[in-house]
Amino acid sequence: MAESGSTDVPQPTPPRGNPIVAVVSAWLIPGMGHVYLKRRLRGLAFLVLVVAAMLIGCRLEGNLYQVVPGQPLTILATLGSMGMGFPYFLLRYGLHYQGNVRGAGYEYGTAFLLTAGLMNLLLVLDAWDIVRGKKE
Amino acid sequence: MLSHFLLMVLFALLVSLFFALLWRRGRREQVKLFLQIFLGMVGGGLLVAWLMYPFPSGPPAPIP
To answer: C-alpha distances in angstroms, A48 versus A116, A119, A122?
Structure first.
C-alpha cells in the first residue's frame, strides 16, 4: 500500500517573494517579475523578446490600439496592448507614437505590437505561478 | 524589411523563442519545442499560402 507522501504529484513550494510586487513589476517592465524572483537570465531573455516585438511593430508603423467609441472590440485590443506595461504608456503618452495606416507594414506592425502586450501578460501569469509555488 | 516572408519568419522566431523559454526548462526540451512551434508556424504559413495560390488577389483594400 502506497504511503500518502510518496505520490508523483509535485508538491507546491512556499512563495519566494511578495506576489503583488512580482505581478506589478512583471507587468510594468517585461521580464522584471522573473528578475525579482531570481530568474535573472530568463527575465532578461523575456525583456529582449518583448521589446524586440515592440520595436519591430513601431518600425513597421503598426497601430498601438486605443479605445475607439462605438467599436467594443478595440477595448479588448487596447487591454492586450496595454499588457506590455510601461512601454505602452511611454509610446502612447511620452513619445506620442502614432501608427501609420498608410504604411506598407501597418498590419504586420499592429500584430507585433499586440503580440508584445499579450506576451507580457503571459509573463505576469507566469510570475504569479512562480511566486505561488505552482511552477519552478 | 517589408518582405512578407521575412516578417513571417521573424514573427515565428520571436513567438517560438518566447514559448520555448516560458513552457520548458531543460535546454533540450526548449530546443525541441522551439523547433516544433517555429517550423509549425512557418510551414503552416507556407501551406496556407500555397492553398490560396489559385485564388485571384483582387484589388487592394481601400484605405479608410
So the answer is: 11, 12, 15
